[in-house]
Amino acid sequence: MNEERAEVRGIMPARPPIGRDKGGIQALDRAFLILDIIADAGGEAKLTDIAATAGLNVSTCHHLISTLYNWGYVARGIGSRTYTLGSRILHLSAACLRQVDLPRRAQLYVDRLNDETREAVQLAVMQGTDLMNVLRRDSRYAVRVDAGMGGKTNAAHATATGKAILAWLPPTEVDRIIATHGLTAFTPNTITSVESLKEELRLTRRNGFAVDREEFQPGVICIGAAVRDHAGAVVGSISVSSPIFRATPDYLDQIRTHLIAVTDELSMELGAPGAILHGGAKTAAE
Fold first, then answer.
1. CA nearest to 182, candidates 213, 156, 144, 164
2. Which helix (H) or strand (E) holds 237?
3. Which of 91, 113, 148 is the last residue of a domain?
4. Which DSSP state fits 122?
5. Which end of the chain has a smaller Cβ tally under 10 Å, C or N?
6. Do 177 and 260 share a domain, yes or no?
7. What SS3 state is found at 110?
8. What DSSP line would sit under 151-189, residue for residue?
9. Could you tell me if 152 and 249 lie in one domain?
10. What's the rounded Cα separation, in Å, for the pair 118 and 101?
11. What is the pLDDT of residues 254-266, one digit of tens each?
12. Per-residue pLDDT reduced to its tens digit, 66-90
């Protein structure tokens, strides 16, 4: 099944003039132009179209794209006939947000979600191929679960925060993360098959949220949703964790409602277009 693609155009500064006479380096000018062209095309474009738009011959364009690919700024699309923006773009975007203090900007939303659900809440971002937990709030209940490990983890495939981010990466970038870390089994429920993980990510895209069903910690159910920036790119995710004995379908649905509201509001504060937010997410019990 083909995933629906939403074309998102952020407000970007005008491109600078290209040429050595402006004090720049022509190859770098062309490389940045290629990234802009892919972004303007909706995040995916054919080599011939990129070359034509950039005014380059196909061979020169291919060499530049190969360099960008090696650095992770460009990825191959489905069937390797197109090119997409790579996950390294998300790394830069996340670093930019951290520079303006994403945890600080997210703190009110994480605190509100913690108040509304009384469960453990955390904010995570991707740094290269690693999942980084950057903000946590503990559960208010006497019987509670740990909000998760701090710092970098290799558990993106086993956590709701990780799956909420992985779902929106190009397939080649998901493959690169899997190749780097593997699919470690943290519990008997952890997804350790590449095919099963990709199906799980497809469901995450369809539903608008991710679910960790005792995949990272025994006895813990977790729901996560993506946070987006002004260009529609996923720059992080927020999740809520509950012990399994409280996780009835109705209870999870209430958590999902609060979670989607918070991630949508934070995304809008970061400038995300309303068209790409979680308008039609399904219930957590499905």
1. 156
2. strand 234-243
3. 91
4. E
5. N
6. yes
7. helix
8. EEES-GGGSHHHHHHHTTS-HHHHHHHHHHH----SSTT
9. yes
10. 25
11. 999 999 999 999 9
12. 999 998 889 888 766 789 888 787 7
Pairing of the two strands 82-85 and 120-127 = unpaired
Same domain, 126 and 202: yes
The verdict on 147 and 178 lying in the same domain is yes
Domain total in the chain = 2
CA-CA distance, 102 to 146, in Å (whole number)?
A: 22
- What does the block give as tokens for 67? 């360099």
Amino acid at 3: E
Q: Do the domain assignments include residue 16? A: no
Helix (H/G/I), strand (E/B), else coil: 38? helix
Report the pLDDT value the prediction gives residue 173, as an integer from 0 to 100.
Answer: 85
Question: How far is the C-alpha of 192 from the C-alpha of 258, rounded, in Å?
Answer: 30
Query: Side chain identity at 51, as an amino acid letter?
Result: A
- pTM of the predicted protein model: 0.66
* The residue count for the chain: 286
Q: Residue 164 in contact with residue 224, Cβ under 8 Å? A: yes
Supply the DSSP symbol for 264.
Answer: H
d(CA 181, CA 263): 27
Beta bridge partners of 210: 224
Question: In whole angstroms, what is the distance from residue 220 CA to residue 33 CA?
Answer: 46
When pLDDT is cut at 50, 70 and 90, the band that residue 272 belongs to is confident
The answer to whether 261 touches 279, Cβ cutoff 8 Å, is: no
Q: Please work out, in degrees rounded to the nearest 5, the angle formed at the alpha carbon of residue 178 by the alpha carbons of 176 and 184.
A: 160
Cα–Cα nearest to 204, from 243, 237, 247: 237
Which range of residues forms the domain containing residue 225? 100-270
